[in-house]
Amino acid sequence: MAREKTTETEVVKGSKEAKRQRKKTKKEYKTRTVHSNLLYYRTKAEDNPNRHYADNKIKTTKYTLLSFLPKNLFEQFHRFANVYFVFIALLNFVPVCNAFQPELALAPVVFILSVTAIKDLWEDYRRHRSDKEINHMDCLVYSRPERQYLERFWKEVRVGDFIRLRCNEILPADVLLLSSSDPDRLVHIETATLDGETNLKQRQVVRSFLDLDCEFDPSKYRSVIECEKPNNDLARFRGYITHSSGRRDGLYKDNLLLRGCTIRNTEECVGIVIYAGHETKAMLNNNGPRYKRSKLERQMNVDVGWCVIILLVMCLFSAIGHGLWMYQYGEKRPVFDVLSPEGTHMSPVLSAIYLFLTMIIVFQVLIPISLFVSIEIVKICQVYFIHQDLELYDEETDSHLQCRALNITEDLGQMQYIFSDKTGTLTENKMVFRRCTVAGVEYSHDANARRLAMYQDVVDSEEEDCPSHGGTLPRRDSVTSHQSAAKVVLRSQSTKSHRRTGSRAEAKRASILSKHTAFSSPMEKDITPDPQLLDKVNDGGSQMDFKRFHSQSLSQMPSELTDIIDFFIALTICNTVVVSSPNQPRHKVRMRFELKSPVKTIEDFIKRFTPSRLTSSSNNSSSSSLNRSSNRGCSHLLTSPSAESTLTKLDEEPSSPVPAPPTLGTCYDGKPGSQEEVELRYEAESPDEAALVYAARAYKCSLVGRLPDQVTVEFPHLGRLSFELLHTLGFDSNRKRMSVVVRHPLTDQITVYTKGADSVIMDLITPPKFANKIHHLCFRSLYNGL
């Protein structure tokens, strides 16, 4: 009995173990395990656990040398006319039914199939060249033997490799974000190639790497990643990372950078490749090249079908008539009677059947084969003229229209559905600041309205002067533009920044990648302030500065001036706009000037607040900016362009007067006039947010820096004020507004600033007497088309 119980227990344990093994196998089937390739660089390829994953080489061509002929003929036979003509040509080889020389009847069919095949082959060759260009783009991949990042082709990237990406670079694969030069460990990406949205999206470094106090070293990476199998869901990513210490952290979509996205507003970031090549989410969403059929071709298939029906009716009518006519002769046969292959006379029924087939060949001209030859030639000519059309040239990107699908050129401009949205995404509405109302007082900005009207007249006149005739495309330097010189400067600065890094990959793409800014046209950026409002802003800033200097309460100020200052504070901080500058892709502002020891001498001041790149210019030029940002806790400095320019000037002119050091509070008392004006660029999730920030900057109320818990704004007479950001309530369709909770640096009070739709803001206006007046002003603005 004891032995039987033992055996039964062993069977139960064995069944449980088998279930666990099946669950484990099932789990492994649904997940992917990614190890660092650096751990296996000395081992054989068979020992690398990542060896079964796809490489990063892509192939979007439809044909190979062996599959071209059968696949192309199969696609062409989807055109009903081709099937018809081939049937007629083969029918002409039947001796009893032939009406023309068989070989001669086959020539037109072979010609039209050959022309289409050559066109498809050329189109597929263009895909091959595009694939080759993409596969041979450069990126920085960490090499274990050299212990540094080396340039590699995209096709050489493998799952488990560590890659470094810089601003304006395109992601070569799906990458798990492990490090970022951003002080908040964020990376901003543009996903226009995936979802068509040009607004920037934020991605976060994996949780366990957020508090990394030194530069990320891939050679010390020992973690293992478990994630889901490759899929085409762009909005989903699940997994976890297990460290050598046993700690496990979750992975989410905010940690994944997708192939095809562009790094924006972030100096550098490092990640490990999770999916590569055709296993990336972008490629899985690409169903591959397919044979596209235009609306004209689909309609022609229908028309050919009706023509075939008419043809069959005509042939049937002729065959029936011929059978009846032969039946009248009886045993006697006419002299012109056609004999059977055996030399005997055929019955009237069989003779009618043969005549039916013969009449199909005779009446084949009902469907003209020359029509389809002409259409193929016309399509090729259309592609040529589309490529050479000056009206389809985009001078901003220095590119002309490219026709990638040669089969559907006639569908260009044939709109079936019209989509419209209120944001102007499709119509490219210009979000321009026109007028404002503060505390019931309207400021019309008449000078700004005249400027906008003048600018629009210039644009319209230049569009009328633009030549509309065809011709070859002009050279880049010969194209005249009504756009501002800021765009040209923007592109040249972007190119210089790429060349400064010394990366061959960046220099190669500098000409095709433009800097992403919220606005680039003077129509949207250059705002003419209202004189009355500008005077009140200066007056309010001056009075606040005076009362702050004499430690007086701000409550004694006129309510009109405080309302105006609060209005511009709301414009600058109640948003998600990120600041950048020409010399620094991401504009960083420290939390506060919390000095560990008081500043006693000017040498201490310069040493304390000089950026590291100004004091370490003799160091190795290849030192990473990741190292500078990761050591941000070791120095308390302000890395804004204004501060850098001032400090550089102090270093060059030691005899010049030195500004006072910052105080220990949240306010910087340096006057804005003492610093060189530096162009700031705003990266906004929506154009209306950037429009409001640019409007505030026209009144010298500039957003100069943003951190997760702080926003820094520069005001006239007040200098730079740092608002402690306590909480942010983002805009959503339910609240229809956005709110920020901040601690005011002057009053030390907690204040809520809100912006949103008038339908919800109107109910929050106090006192109520302003509500009716503001409602009337809003209605008048709507009547004027604003």
TrEMBL record:
Organism: Esox lucius
Keywords of the record: ATP-binding, Magnesium, Membrane, Metal-binding, Nucleotide-binding, Translocase, Transmembrane, Transmembrane helix
Domain P-type ATPase N-terminal: 45-103
Biased composition (Basic residues): 19-30
Catalyzed reactions per annotation: ATP + H2O + phospholipidSide 1 = ADP + phosphate + phospholipidSide 2
InterPro entries: ATPase_P-typ_cyto_dom_N, ATPase_P-typ_P_site, ATPase_P-typ_TM_dom_sf, ATPase_P-typ_transduc_dom_A_sf, HAD-like_sf, P-type_ATPase_IV, P-type_ATPase_N
Keyword Cell wall biogenesis/degradation: no
Main location: membrane
Region (Disordered): 1-30, 462-531, 613-672
EC top class named in words: translocase
Residue positions binding ATP: 421-423, 689, 731, 755
Active site: 421
Gene Ontology CC: one annotated term: plasma membrane
NCBIfam families per the UniProt record, alphabetical: ATPase-Plipid
Protein name per its UniProtKB record: Phospholipid-transporting ATPase
Subcellular location: Membrane
GO biological process, one term: phospholipid translocation
Similarity annotation: Belongs to the cation transport ATPase (P-type) (TC 3.A.3) family. Type IV subfamily.
Low complexity bias (residue ranges): 613-632
Cofactor(s) listed in the protein's UniProt record: Mg(2+)
Signal sequence coordinates: none
GO MF entries: ATP binding; ATPase-coupled intramembrane lipid transporter activity; magnesium ion binding
Bias type Polar residues, positions: 637-648
Entry EC number(s): 7.6.2.1
Binding positions (Mg(2+)): 421, 423
TM region positions: 80-98, 104-122, 304-329, 349-373
